[in-house]
Design goal:
The protein contains 16 helices and 13 strands. The chain has 383 residues and is an alpha/beta fold.
Length: 383
């Protein structure tokens, strides 16, 4: 088939780019012709919370990435829509994560759908965003109305979709593994490269720091005497996308500066394996969630996880088997981390992860897309 993925890709950085590029690679490996239409402008600078939107890594040479899309320019949406309408790909895939993108994606998709050939599919990160804004529901409805089939990566998002549509074809497929960040290193090597004491105990918080991800809960847990006694260090690896002062002040007020290693620049793809290789367990103390790419990086590197019982996180981290599921409360987080070390659960969890991770192959995602295509009747969409 000829397939177009509409969304974030190189030169933009982060999990959305990683997902779309890895999906394109899988589709190509399965014999399809794939193009990614990405942005000339993704976010206006005033709306972007980080230091830069752009990657410092080399471009993926094996992918056909075209910079065509301006998220804020309706004339551009018309132009791109006409181009894709004329080219008649068999499938147009969007990765939907934020209602801000709905006017852009929805308008382009409407133009493309007019050719009567292309099937319009979306992989949903969220349909209701973590951080609510005026107009979210209207924008999401606009996008859902034109999309012909959906893949939700958590059951909570699948349920949220029913608030906007109950009839169109849909599939549940968990987030596949992020398996393109290199290989697992031995802890000693990784810790030496990160200039960490090699005999320490390390918990990793990884990814963009936003308030809903609950870093404050994890910092409060680090002040628990049980974790102090175990001499556990928290590595915070990721860029602040929320006000950094509240977290820095919390570290000071809790008196845990000697227990926290802050690595708060953006972590390039080539260094991701260092942080996951260096740690013993990955903590995601989220206050709200759907699914998370961080769990799939942890699966790839066979690292135990602590997650909170929100959204779809508990669906993929069996409690007591590959990690722990707790409520988003500091005491429960501290108790679980202490149990992990005192009960020496690391190797048991790793062996279970090796089995559990087999569920998250990329072929599961592409098969879900193929099945959706078979269920979409373009004649029905014309009615």
């Amino acid at each position: 088939m000829r397939i177009v993925i509409l969304g974030t890709a190189y030169p933009y950085r982060g999990g959305l780019s990683a997902f779309n590029e890895r999906l394109a690679t899988e589709l190509q490996n399965e014999g399809h012709e794939v193009e990614i239409y990405t942005f000339t402008l993704q976010y206006p600078s005033l709306l972007f919370p980080g230091k830069t939107q752009y990657s410092s890594e080399p471009a993926p040479a094996h992918l056909n990435i075209k910079r065509r899309v301006n998220s804020c320019n309706p004339f551009n949406w018309f132009s791109v829509g006409r181009e894709l309408q004329k080219n008649k790909p068999d499938m147009l895939i969007t990765k939907y994560w934020l209602p801000f993108m709905s006017p852009c994606f929805g308008s382009i998709a409407r133009m493309v759908a007019c050719n009567g050939h292309t099937k319009i599919l979306s992989i949903l990160d969220n349909i209701i965003p973590h951080e609510h804004r005026i107009g979210d529901k209207i924008f999401s409805k606009y996008f859902v109305n034109v999309t012909q089939g959906f893949v939700a990566m958590s059951k909570s998002v699948l349920a949220d979709l029913s608030l906007f549509d109950e009839k169109k074809p849909r599939k549940f497929c968990p987030h596949p593994l992020y398996d393109h960040y290199g290989t697992l290193l031995d802890k000693k090597t990784a810790r030496e490269k990160l200039q960490l004491p090699v005999d320490g105990k390390y918990v990793l918080f990884f990814g963009f720091i936003r308030d809903y991800k609950g870093l404050d809960i994890l910092l409060e847990a680090m002040a628990d005497q049980k974790l102090r006694d175990e001499k556990i260090t928290l590595i915070v690896a990721g860029e602040f996308y929320s006000n950094s002062e509240k977290y820095l002040n919390l570290i000071d007020s809790l008196g845990i500066a000697d227990q926290v290693k802050l690595c708060t620049d953006f972590i390039p793809d080539s260094e991701v394996n260092l942080y996951f290789s260096a740690c013993d367990i990955v903590a995601q103390p989220y206050k709200t969630a759907t699914q998370s790419g961080v769990t799939q990086i942890a699966f790839h590197f066979e690292k135990p996880m602590l997650v909170t019982n929100v959204g779809g996180l508990a669906e993929i981290v069996p409690n007591g088997k590959i990690g722990y599921v707790v409520e988003p409360e500091a005491k429960q987080v501290a108790d679980a981390l202490a149990k992990f070390y005192t009960d020496e659960k690391e190797q048991e969890f790793i062996e279970n992860i090796k089995i559990e991770k087999q569920k998250y192959a990329w072929s599961n995602m592409t098969n879900a897309l193929y099945e959706l295509m078979q269920e979409i009747d373009l004649d029905d969409n014309k009615k």
